[in-house]
Amino acid sequence: MDQIPSTVVYFLLISVVIAGCTWFFQYMSIKRRHLQLLGKITKVPGLPIIGNALSLFGTTSEIFDLFVKYFFEYGPNFLLWFGNIPVVIIGKPEDLERTMQSQSCLSKGYFYEFTKLVVGEGLFSAPVHKWRKTRKIIQPTFNSKILNYFLPIFAETSGIFVNEILLRYVNRKDIDWFPLFSSVHLDTISQTAMGMNTDAQRRKTNFVDHLNTALRITFFRMTNVFLHPDIIFKFTRFSAEVNTAVKFMKKFTNERDLENRPDDLSFGDEPSKRKVFLEFLLELDHKGNKFTDQELIDEVMTFFVGGTDTSAVTSCFFLSMMGMHQDIQQRVFEEILEVIGPEKSADVEDLTKLQLLERCLKETLRIFPPAPFIAREVKDKEVKLTDYVLPVGTVLLFSIFYTHRCPDYWENPLKFDPDRFLPEVFSKKHPYSFIPFSGGLRNCVGIRYSYMNLKNLLSMILRKYKVYCDYKSIEEIELENCIVVKPIHGFKIHFEERR
Questions:
Q1: Which candidate, 177, 182, 184, places its Cα nearest to that of 155?
Q2: How far is CA 219 from CA 82, 245, 352, 398, 486, in A?
Q3: Which residues does the annotation say bind heme (predicted)?
Q4: Which of 219, 210, 195 is nearest to 244 (CA)?
Q5: Number of helices followed by number of strands (H, E) in the chain
Q6: Half-sphere exposure of 91 (CA within 13 A, CB side)
Q7: Cβ-based burial of 145 (10 A; exposed 0-12, middle 13-18, buried ≥19)
Q8: In the structure, what pLDDT confidence band is assigned to residue 6 with cuts at 50, 70 and 90?
Q9: d(Cα 206, Cα 246) in Å, to the nearest integer?
Q10: pLDDT confidence of 100, banded at 50, 70, 90?
Q11: Where are the alpha helices (DSSP H) in 254-391?
Q12: Which CA distances in Å does 106 have to 140, 155, 186, 345, 383?
């Protein structure tokens, strides 16, 4: 075999040295600038060059525990280094408001690049220029009038769950509830998003399993700096697993062919049949707000991913709280009977009147926010906070979990107390002390959809069943984060049919 010429070897060595020196001087320049501007911010001790990256190795539960430890040890705001990436964690409500309302903090940033394999560039992960255009177009599809069209779908899918699925598992303590609740929400999303009846509750679909695989691997990759480069990640088993999962999910959501869009759509102000999310997008497309096929697929996939896992965990955590607090559950049950009655389906006005149930739902979301932290990146210009300035290029991690559980903002934070959300009580709180659906300019577009769907399902369940929980306190529930927070040991609830 011919030897490689020595000049080539020297050239490669020199190139590596130059690249390494360039990276190092860039790193030192970035670090010097950030330390100069951030000044008094608390800093998590780390190693030279790699910062705190090595401490973030571990299982999803170990990483979550470490973040929570950091939150309460160094919070409300502090700085850590993820290799050469400065990450400022923000938990102070006043600073959450400043950053979430800032035009400079709209970019989802570096870490969300890894989510695009799963959800594409829908509203969740789109770059700012694309997000602005799409948000403006999509926002009107979540108005009250359109959401009212979805209520019969909510009632239909929830009815199957309450009258068929739960009935099979009455008094059973050996059930993994999360997949069952994911299935009812998958059915709801499928029908409201695409007009597609997946019947996921009655026949098993692997969508939820593949979604959980994709989210778990995505979060693991986010926190493992060595898996960030595509050239490394694609040679790991995780790459094959996530690609298999995403391929199945895309096939699932593409069953309704987006390429064959009719050219003669005729939409009136009062539709003669139920419209679904995709039809509203197609109507907007027909009126001149052009979407490519890929953009439509990305928005529908975002709707699926954003609405299935988060709604399922919130439902299960809510019922866990009801099972843990029987006196509150009884009051909610009595409210449901008084407002809706023992048999009829709830209408929009009924759901609005379920004030105690809504306060219990909000208190559940306070203690167990589905997305415990979300990221952004400072772009274009620096952002002034209470005590320091955020330089351009800083990655921000909004620690919603910390803010919702911090005793500085919530007295006795691990006590389940729905009266915290009485109007006269909550009005005294900083509005950014409770942000389960994010906040500010880039908050969740489907907040009202989620509340309506959850209130309908949960009221139907509690009207027919009494729920119990084997956890005796909130402190007992050990958590992990796979982008969506879940209990490590499952939801220990069981149901008894009311007589």
A1: 184
A2: 15, 15, 36, 16, 13
A3: 444
A4: 210
A5: 19, 11
A6: 29
A7: exposed
A8: low
A9: 12
A10: very high
A11: 277-286, 293-324, 326-339, 348-353, 355-367
A12: 20, 36, 29, 40, 12
Closest CA to 308 of 162, 201, 168: 201
Contact 302, 122 (CB under 8 A): yes
pLDDT of residue 236 exceeding 60: yes
On whether 444 is known to bind a ligand per the annotation, the reply is yes
Between residues 432 and 119, the one the model is more confident about: 432
Q: Identify whether the C-beta of residue 30 lies closer than 8 Å to the C-beta of residue 394.
A: no
Angle at 200 between CA 164 and CA 252, to 5 degrees: 170
Structure tokens at 148: 């009212």
- Using the Cα atoms of residue 95, residue 101, residue 103 and residue 109 in order, give the sign of their dihedral: positive
Residue 55: what residue type? Answer: S
Q: Which residue has the tokens 């069981």?
A: 494
Instruction: Indicate whether this model's pTM tops 0.85.
Output: yes
Q: Which helix (H) or strand (E) holds 74?
A: helix 60-74
Instruction: Please check whether residue 349 is in contact with residue 450, taking contact to mean a CB–CB distance below 8 angstroms.
Output: no
User: What pLDDT is stored for residue 206 in this prediction?
Assistant: 87
Q: Average pLDDT for residues 339-353, to the nearest whole number?
A: 94
Residue 286 has pLDDT above 90, yes or no: no
pLDDT reading at 262 higher than 50: no
